[in-house]
UniProtKB/TrEMBL annotation:
<dbReference type="InterPro" id="IPR002539">
    <property type="entry name" value="MaoC-like_dom"/>
</dbReference>
<feature type="domain" description="MaoC-like">
    <location>
        <begin position="11"/>
        <end position="121"/>
    </location>
</feature>
<dbReference type="Pfam" id="PF01575">
    <property type="entry name" value="MaoC_dehydratas"/>
</dbReference>
<dbReference type="InterPro" id="IPR029069">
    <property type="entry name" value="HotDog_dom_sf"/>
</dbReference>
<dbReference type="InterPro" id="IPR052342">
    <property type="entry name" value="MCH/BMMD"/>
</dbReference>
<protein>
    <submittedName>
        <fullName>MaoC family dehydratase</fullName>
    </submittedName>
</protein>
Amino acid sequence: MAGRHFDEWQVGDKLTHEIRRTVTEADNLFFTVMTHNPQPLHLDVEAAKESEFGQILVNGTYTFSLMVGLSVGDTTLGTLVANLGYDKLVMPKPVFIGDTLHATSEVIALRESKSRPDTGIVTFLHEAVNQRGEVVCRCERSALLKKKG
């Protein structure tokens, strides 16, 4: 499904994205290594066992990236000019290997672009939710979208 244009959104629109993903050890390992993050909580099983979590903790930037990625097909695919910013990023619960995540999105603001009349800014509240219904990541994303006209 292609994303929506600016003029197809209304404040209060809510979506539960159908795509889900179970986080694997390989996902966490590859992302952590690719981003040069040496945090033992993400890479070292023995160090992670000694932490308050007792197991490998999934890299938070992977969780954030997955959350946004799960939303793209329904929100901005093919209509995005640029992501303008991510605000109020929080991770209220940890993510572990084997957790299955899905994402939700809500439009919390709309604004016509002053400098580009063929576009507008949509602000989404994205949330990643695990299989227990716990929000594990949340942020606001401002996206510059094309208008349909």
